[in-house]
Write a structure and sequence with these properties.
Largest sheet: 4 strands, antiparallel
Number of helices: 2
Order of helices and strands: EEEEEEEEEHH
Number of domains: 3
Shape: globular
Strand order of the largest sheet: 6-7-8-9
Number of strands: 9
Structural class: alpha+beta
Strand content: 25-35%
Distance between the termini: 6 Å
Amino acid sequence: MCGAAETFIKRRPLESGAGELGKAPAKGGKAMGDVTVDDAALFLARFESGALGTFEATRFAAGRKNHMTFEVNGEHGSLVFDLERLNELQYCSTRDGKTEQGFRTILATDGGHPYAGAWWPAGHMIGWEHTFTHEIFDVLSAIEARKLVKPDFEDGYRCQSVLEAAQRSFESKKWRR
């Protein structure tokens, strides 16, 4: 992987308005503090299969409230999930007729979709809070059935390994495994 990260604004007002330990904020203003996190980060990845991936995170996406998206593009189609549109998937297939090709919205609230059948009738939205209910249900069901649940600690470890490789790439300005 290869990437870059940047902190654009080096100092910001401290959220609480308090200064560093033992120091009062400047007269008439909020105390300022050094920024220790990136404002934007991105990296390219090459998967074992040969597929390529791009990853981006930024605080500077005006108009976005919680725009966490996943987009997978392949030879025969694409699939997009956007957390701001929690109940929808965007799907495109090159196998559709030429006049029908293009993204279409799949409203994933019908009872046939995983988890949706446990809630309201089709077309009624499932919210952010419901995802945590499903998470707890999956964990408790796995404990009862004595089965492993995914994602697990191994998945978390692998994710952290990718993030650390990205950080090493940011620092060295070189591709990293």
